[in-house]
Amino acid sequence: MRFHRRVLLVLLPALALIACAAPDQLVVPIGVFVSGAPDGAVVSVQAPVVTTPTTTWGKEVTYTWHVDFTSVQEIPVDEIVIDVPDLEGHFVVPLEPEEIAAGSIDVPMWVGSQEAGETVCQRDYRGIGTCYTPMTQGTTDLGFAAGNEPDPAAPEGGIGLSAGSVVEIAVVGSPPTSGACAETWMPASCACTVEACCPSTEQCWYEVNGSTWFPCDGADCMGTIQAVAAFCGCSFDEG
Asked: 127 with 1: CB under 8 angstroms?
């Protein structure tokens, strides 16, 4: 299944790669990763509403999508399907009865290291045991749809799907250099500690809360500081 719009999932690479290092994984702990496209068809033009506090992600940090599927009335919804065709598969998040009744679910997700066999998968209803898949650098489609599993006694046609909702996120990695960093001014409403580190006039990094880094080219960092403010849940104002 391909959604009509494309979503860029930008993974900014580290300056140096370690030989034989394990690839980063895209993890949905309450989901199951299934290779290939969803086995079904779009049978509803309605789509869930998907929101997250920020679309700029650091590695090894859990972010939460709020998926509201109350607008999907044309099919009974019992799962959320997160399609990632450029990673050659999709995640299925089976819904609990209370989530179906509420019409929404919070779906945690992160990008980072994940060792095979680690106990992070929480809803292994298919007995597959994998709720993550290797990430690739570059761009990737990411779309959320509501789904309805067919009756096991009559599985013809596969999953019934709603239209997909799409998002764009950016994942930032670690800084390529360390060095002297100084705390930078942020509005009082920003509940983050932000330090600026500029090893040259061509390269700067903003460190947020001692762990997440946002790069810029050193010449014009206003867009980056705006992204930092958004990450911190506030609004940056020079005045």
From this structure: no
**Pairwise CA distance, residues 155 & 65, whole Å:** 29
- Distance in angstroms (rounded) separating the CA atoms of residues 174 and 192: 18
105 has which bridge partners? 67
Interatomic CA distance for residues 124 and 126, integer angstroms: 6
The CA-atom distances, in angstroms, between 37 and each of 63, 72, 93, 142, 201 are 24, 21, 15, 12, 46
CB 66 within 8 A of CB 50: yes
Question: Who contacts 160 (Cβ-Cβ below 8 Å, separation ≥6)?
Answer: 40, 41, 43, 44, 75, 147, 148, 150
DSSP 21: P
Contact 42, 163 (CB under 8 A): yes
The tokens for 105 are 């679910």
Question: Are 2 and 95 contacting, i.e. CB atoms less than 8 angstroms apart?
Answer: no
Give Cα separations from 74 to 155, 179, 219 (angstroms): 19, 56, 51
174, 15 contact by CB (below 8 A): no
Cβ contacts of 163 within 8 Å, gap of 6 or more? 3, 42, 44, 45, 46, 47, 145
User: Tell me: the pLDDT tens digits for 100-136?
Assistant: 999 999 999 888 887 655 678 887 666 666 898 888 7
Tell me, what amino acid is at 33? Answer: F
pTM, rounded to two decimals: 0.68
